[in-house]
Amino acid sequence: MKIKIDDDFDLEKIAESGQCFRFNKCGDGYSVNASDKYLFIKELASCEYEFDCSKKDFEEFWKNYFDLETSYKDIRGLIDKKDEYLKSAAEYGKGIRILRQDPWEMLISFIISQRKNIPAIKASIEKLCALAGKKIGTEKNANGDNIYAFPTPGEIAKLSDKELSSCGLGYRDKYVKKAASDVLTGEAELYKWQDLTDDDLMERLLKLFGVGVKVANCEILFGYHRLDAFPKDVWINRVLELKYPEGFNFDRHKPYNGVMQQYLFFYSRSNGLA
After folding, report:
1. Angle between helices 257-271 and 234-243 (to 10 degrees)
2. N vs C: which end of the chain shows fewer Cβ within 10 Å?
3. Position 273 in a domain
4. In DSSP terms, which residues pair with 25 in a beta bridge?
5. Per-residue pLDDT tens digits for 150-177
6. How many other C-beta atoms can be found within 10 angstroms of the C-beta atom of residue 59?
7. Distance of CA 140 to CAs 27, 63, 130, Å?
8. Which residues pair with 135 in a beta bridge?
9. Which domain holds residue 203?
């Protein structure tokens, strides 16, 4: 089905923004895997896109997944005109949206992401999905590669240590297995935690094995769509040090500091820091 999107929406920038690991270039469009859903999407013309899904699936899942009811143009309008670096970053990153992703998938994805580059993260996640997830279709590419759902906690818990190790997780394999166990036993009630305040959510996440402040902030921003969360990695820390030595104005950008973080991350990672 064809959808017209008048707000900021750039498939390439979203795919490269570091928030999603199963959103990839595929032929003349992009393949998007989210939990047990698959979508092929491509741009037809300016502001017009083809979603290879039913109207029902678009309305019930993908419209929300792409956060299409939020105006990112308006969010960019909040930026202080005197903040030249953030203005440049937002203009460069215009089209990025914060996807509404699944808390379970994001928890495992960002646990895996620790001390790994993005290609390595994507490779490990795809190996894990192929090993434990259910087949849900085939890619729209020349090879017709199989598409697998993101594995459930039960499917991951059934994997042996050797099987988990084959996914290239390294020391993170024990974190992944414990997270699956914690969800199954009710120790980590990820979906009930959606009702917690940001502070309480952070407190609960930090109690999970292998979850530090950075992973917890990524989970809060990308898994729970709390748009004020501000994850800090090596790029963001360098931005704050070099461009904001007197401090970043978090109060100015509430409750959208997480969107600003995405612009800063994408801009600094793409262009380096001069």
Report:
1. 90
2. C
3. no
4. 30
5. 999 999 999 999 999 999 999 999 999 9
6. 11
7. 7, 21, 17
8. 148
9. 2-85+94-223
